Amino acid sequence: MKWTKYHLFLAGLMLTTGSLNTLSAKWADMFSAPGCHGSPDHDFSHPFVQAVGMFLGELSCLVVFYILLCHDRRRSEPSMDPGESFNPLVFLPPALCDMLGTSIMYVALNMTSASSFQMLRGAVIIFTGLLSVAFLGRRLKPSQWFGILITILGLVVVGLADFVSGHGDDSHKLSEIITGDLLIIMAQIIVAVQMVLEEKFVYKHNVHPLKAVGTEGFFGFVILSLLLIPMFFIHVGSFADNPRQVLEDALDAFCQIGHKPLILLALLGNTVSIAFFNFAGISVTKEISATTRMVLDSLRTLVIWVVSLALGWEKFQGLQILGFIILLLGTAVYNGLHKPLMAKMPCFAREQITEEGNVPERERLLGGEKANEEN
């Protein structure tokens, strides 16, 4: 398929905003400011407030969708396809998964580096493949199983790099880094459940990308905003970094923002970038392919790592490079990117045509062929 200027724009938008999303979230975590009632300087550690900001970014996509739709309908010849009508509640289960997974990842981002955070998110391939076999009736190809094994190896190498760097890291304790890495992997299980739910209940509808992102963001924003109230009173001891040691102290977050407005800039960067990133990601899947989306998601890991090194946020670790290369290789094998090279071999070309057929791109991302053909 020949790429158009619009395709290049979507790919660049996804890569840029995806990188800014993680970097701005990590930037906010690195600030220190006084809190409410004259409390001394302490780190800005408010993962659930950051998650609310992320869902606000997704919710803004719904506003943009209706603005564009109203503008299009005023034309003499409307060209915008609003998609078919659907029950918005189909987005509630994946939104709940998104809310839980995102919150856990923001907690983990406080404990580990931005590059490791992004690299370890590659674990989603493992759990997505396994869950698609269990719940969607897919059958993984041998190459996809091999890709999963390579990904597991890459995760081990990245974890080992964090273990080695943790002994000489002044900003994070070794126990925090290990806990953060484990939380990231745990969150990928939830993200994989979200992807399977979206495949089973959401993607069968013809939903406009902006409306899909916005509807999911609406549920996440409303529910998590309401949950901030009980979180303000739930005491969790030393697990929390805020002065009151509660699960989330939103008032303390606002007080810190008031004392150091740059925190607000970082949070706004996270909110705006996630809005454009989600739209670009879904658009890349629909306009180009799901495989391209996975490749771009892997490339932003490299961007985040390079920027983090340039800003002095973390130290150079050779093992991280090795881990990233292995993870990238695992992603490529799982998504079949090795096949164009192997297809040049005459003995493999005929087998490639027979095996691939016309399997939709989204099905290959989630696990390959169906176990049983539908009648």
* Neighbour order of strands in the largest sheet: 1-2
User: By helix and strand content, what is the structural category?
Assistant: mainly alpha
> What is the tally of beta strands?
4
For the report, how would you describe the main beta sheet?
Answer: 2 strands, antiparallel
Series of H and E elements: HEEHHHHEHHHHHHHHHHE
Strand content is under 5%
Shape: globular
Instruction: Specify Rg, calculated over alpha carbons.
Output: 21 Å
Instruction: Indicate the mean pLDDT.
Output: 82
Residue stretches low in confidence (pLDDT < 50, at least 5 long) are: 351-365, 368-375
The percent of residues in helical segments reads 55-70%
N-end to C-end Cα span: 31 Å
**How many helices?**
15
Characterization of the model:
Helices cover 70% and strands 2% of the residues. It is mostly helical and 375 residues long. The strands form two sheets. It has a two-stranded antiparallel ribbon. Strands 3-4 form a two-stranded antiparallel sheet. A hairpin with an 8-residue loop joins strand 1 and strand 2. The longest helix is centred in the middle third of the chain and has 29 residues. The two termini are 31 Å apart.
